[in-house]
Amino acid sequence: MKVSIITTVLNSVYTIEECILSVISQNFNNIEYIVIDGGSNDGTIDIIKKYEDKITRWISEKDNGIYDALNKGIRLATGDIIGFLHSDDLYYDNNVISDVVEVFTDSKVDSCYGDLVYVDRNNTDRLIRYWKAGTYKRSSFKYGWMPHHPTFFCKRDVYEKYGLFNLSFPLAADYELMLRFLYKYEVSTEYIQKVLIKMRVGGTSRPGSYTLKSVIENYRSWKVNGLNYPPTMLLKPFSKIKQYFIKG
Prior knowledge:
CATH architecture: Alpha-Beta Complex
Radius of gyration: 17 Å
CATH topology: Spore Coat Polysaccharide Biosynthesis Protein SpsA, Chain A
Order of helices and strands: EHEHEHEEHEEEHHEHH
Distance between the termini: 31 Å
Number of helices: 8
């Protein structure tokens, strides 16, 4: 079983090396590593070139944002499973991909996800917040729940069947995609009860952010998929509060 890992990056010279090292240090040896750079000019490219013998394929060109870059990576991927690791992020340990493959092999599911910790930008051993995803329940989507998408691994043929990230959702394309996969089409999934990702605070995704624009995009996510927007979705900001009190 081959796993395609996609990293998107733009001007992340201070974090990209640690991100790359966390991928190439995995103890699973059948990894296709794809790096999609958006046209960095801060030295990021020099670091990518430093490790290009360990990177299966990389490109550097302008894109239309992170989800456009992720779609480029998905189209290039040839692995059975696809996962994402953003340039600010790290795998929690060297066993993450092995653990993911074990779930796909043993449980015969089409996707899986796990927990994530937000860490200090300069000290990745300092925990800021623990995101405990919990066991999957389809009804949880009605209350604003979703897996954290850097922890989400999915079979490539699911993307081929149900589509890529919808670029009309600049803030919530990850939410729309998982709503489409897990809720609308009921793609099978399993929860891995361990931390998979360390995410630096202050990067692409910021904990606690919930704006009017994101509310509108969440609403549109249901409508574009022909689903009735549940009133309980208004509880989404409150559903995140408990995450701030979980320490693992």
